[in-house]
Amino acid sequence: MHKTAKLLSSWMTSGGVVVPDILKGEELTSSIESKNKTSESYKESYDQLWLLIVEDSSTMATYFDFDNFNANDRVFKSAFDKIFILRRVEGKLYELKTDN
After folding, report:
1. CA separation (Å) from 94 to 65, 68, 86, 90?
2. 3-state SS, residue 59
3. Which of 31, 79, 81, 87 has a beta carbon 3.0–4.6 Å from 36's, enabling a disulfide?
4. Which of 32, 9, 12 is nearest to 22 (CA)?
5. pLDDT given at position 22
6. Tally: H helices and E strands in the chain
7. What's the CA gap between 74 and 95, in Å, rounded?
8. pLDDT tens readout for residues 18-77
9. d(CA 34, CA 30)
10. What distance separates the 2 farthest-apart alpha carbons in the chain?
11. pTM above 0.70, yes or no
């Protein structure tokens, strides 16, 4: 008896995304402000809150112009004790300055 090998197929659709003002970095500030609103419930259970934002340039909707936005030079008003940006493709982790 001859067994027929199963053929495995792999496929994906191509896609696109519209990247609005996120390229200018303002979306980063907006994202932090949005997360600030949800932080209160966590403060009851934890001594410190850290926020990790992952930038994955293979998914354009998560990308922002980090260098031209000067995120390292800004101080972000935040309920979080620390805010980190992980630039996944570069393999770099940045800590943003916070005013909490």
Report:
1. 14, 15, 6, 11
2. coil
3. 79
4. 32
5. 45
6. 3, 4
7. 11
8. 555 444 567 778 888 888 988 888 888 888 999 998 877 566 556 666 666 677 788 888
9. 6
10. 73
11. no
The pLDDT, as a whole number, for residue 13 is 61
Determine phi and psi for 79, rounding to 5 degrees: -80, -10
pLDDT at res. 12: 59
C-beta of residue 53 within 8 angstroms of C-beta of residue 84 = yes
Rounded Cα distance, 62 and 91, in Å? 15
d(C-alpha 2, C-alpha 53), whole Å: 53
Alpha-carbon distances of 100 from 35, 52, 73, 90, rounded to whole Å: 14, 16, 16, 28
